[in-house]
Design brief:
- The protein is built from 14 helices and 15 strands.
- By secondary structure, the chain is an alpha/beta fold.
- It has 2 domains: 151 residues, Glycogen Phosphorylase B (Rossmann fold, 3-Layer(aba) Sandwich); 155 residues, Glycogen Phosphorylase B (Rossmann fold), CATH 3.40.50.2000.
- The protein has a 7-stranded parallel sheet with strand order 3-2-1-4-5-6-7, sandwiched between helices.
- The two termini are 19 Å apart.
- The relative contact order is 0.14.
- Keywords: Transferase.
Length: 384
């Protein structure tokens, strides 16, 4: 198959959507497919090239003033590569791919990564819509996406090409006992809840240290909150780390306190390294932790429950050991190969049911005048 993946950028900044797309493109190219990533670029181009994936510069922005230019650029891209499948991972790409053509020869697949956003409903423009967890699929069905157009392919990172042949970073050496989170610095990631929980934990485990690995627009506010709560000396704001495995590998307890989470990739990474995990029971997190078998689930936005769970694991050795032993169990379902196979199956089924190339071929048989055939334009298409 000829496949084009669309996303706003290809930056190595810890964006889970981009990471999933990069893994998928590399695995599909490895399977022998002709794969293109179209984005504004930003850092993963060299990795894509090593795996036989071409990168094409296609800036994408939701600004209305840029729509005409984006549509024109996308039409040129489609005319050049004539894809079987266009796979949009973000809202802008999905709308461009759907609205740029009246008669098209490709199927449009969309993936809903962030169902909590209002714009997620617009991902329903795809011929087939993929949810990254059962929880997201249920939410999208409630938004009116027909179940026959909806499938689930859970995110996974096991065997990611992004870290292939890359040794575990030796530094930094963390202080112990320690709590680690790897997350963007956003309020919705529950960083404030974790700081409040850490205050309570500090009463029980006074020498504990909290490492916050990640960056984002709410970092300054979170640093101010740590000072306000009187724990700034025990909290380390580490900023963005491209390869956070050294932090994960040394975490006595790994925490993901999100208010919303479709299917956090970092949970796979923490499980692979055999960490004791505490996370909120929200979105797709329970699915990523096997319903609580591979991690402790706590209510969302409940710092007291968060502190209790972390404190228990830090002070009860048997409970901690049992959880770390279960964490890496049955991880094959979160392999990037499983993810790739799942999407390729969806591509094939959608192509078979929509048959866009058959419709496009029929359209090109018409004549506008003697001796003049209507062009089989890949920039216009029939609604499928």
């Amino acid at each position: 198959m000829k496949i084009i993946h669309l996303a706003n950028h290809a930056k190595c900044i810890g964006n889970g959507i981009v990471n999933v797309m990069i893994d998928l493109a590399c695995l599909q190219a490895r399977a022998g497919h002709d794969v293109t990533v179209a984005s504004a670029g930003g850092g993963f181009e060299a990795l894509l090239a090593r795996h036989g994936v071409r990168h094409v510069l296609l800036p994408q922005s939701p600004r209305p003033s840029r729509v005409v230019g984006m549509v024109a650029a996308f039409r040129r891209l489609v005319a050049q590569y004539d894809p079987d499948v266009v796979h949009a991972h973000m809202m802008t790409g999905a709308l461009i791919a759907r609205m740029s053509a009246l008669r098209r020869r490709y199927v449009l697949i969309t993936t809903v990564h962030n169902e909590f956003q209002r714009s997620a409903t617009l991902m329903g423009v795809g011929d087939h819509v993929v949810a990254v967890s059962d929880a997201v699929a249920v939410a999208m069905a409630r938004r009116g996406i027909a179940r026959e157009r909806l499938s689930v392919v859970r995110n996974g990172t096991i065997g990611t090409p992004r870290l292939a042949d890359t040794p575990m970073p030796a530094q930094p050496q963390l202080a112990h006992p320690c709590v680690v989170t790897v997350s963007g610095m956003y309020e919705r990631k529950g960083i404030g809840d974790l700081l409040h929980a850490f205050v309570l934990l500090h009463e029980r485990v006074p020498d504990a240290v909290l490492y916050l690995v990640g960056d984002g627009p709410d970092r300054v506010a979170m640093e101010a909150l740590a000072r306000q709560l009187g724990v700034a000396a025990q909290v380390r704001f580490e900023g963005f780390v491209a390869d956070p495995r050294a932090y994960l590998a040394q975490a006595d307890v790994f925490v993901l306190a999100s208010h919303y989470e479709a299917a956090g990739l970092v949970l796979c990474e923490a499980r692979e390294l055999g960490r004791a995990i505490v996370a909120t029971r929200v979105g797709g997190i329970p699915e990523m932790l096997d319903g609580g078998e591979a991690g402790v689930l706590v209510p969302v936005q409940d710092p007291a429950a968060l502190a209790e769970a972390i404190g228990h694991l830090m002070t009860a050795r048997d409970a901690h050991a049992a959880l770390t032993a279960r964490a890496p169990y049955k991880l094959e379902k979160f392999s990037v190969q499983q993810v790739s196979d799942g999407y390729l199956s969806i591509y094939e089924r959608t192509l078979a049911s929509c048959q866009p190339r058959r419709f496009a071929s029929i359209a090109t048989r018409g004549m506008t005048a003697p001796g003049r055939v209507v062009r089989d334009s890949v920039t216009q298409s029939t609604t499928i």
